[in-house]
Amino acid sequence: MNYDSPSDLQSFENFIRRFRPVFAKAHGAARRLESGANASGGLESWCFTFLPDYFCRTPSLMHRWMFR
Hints:
Elements: H1 6-36, H2 42-50, H3 53-57, H4 59-66
């Protein structure tokens, strides 16, 4: 994805906006899982199981859009 292109960025924003409830739900599940499951790897293993690894490697930008 080319982040320099406004149309790409806009469509990505629209995608995030549409699926934010889903992301928030997944994020909440991950937080609950992380707080009680550090033995099983916590958030990172959950992340690699359910989300693409680019999300896990660079979460900050995605999180700013998803959970703002």
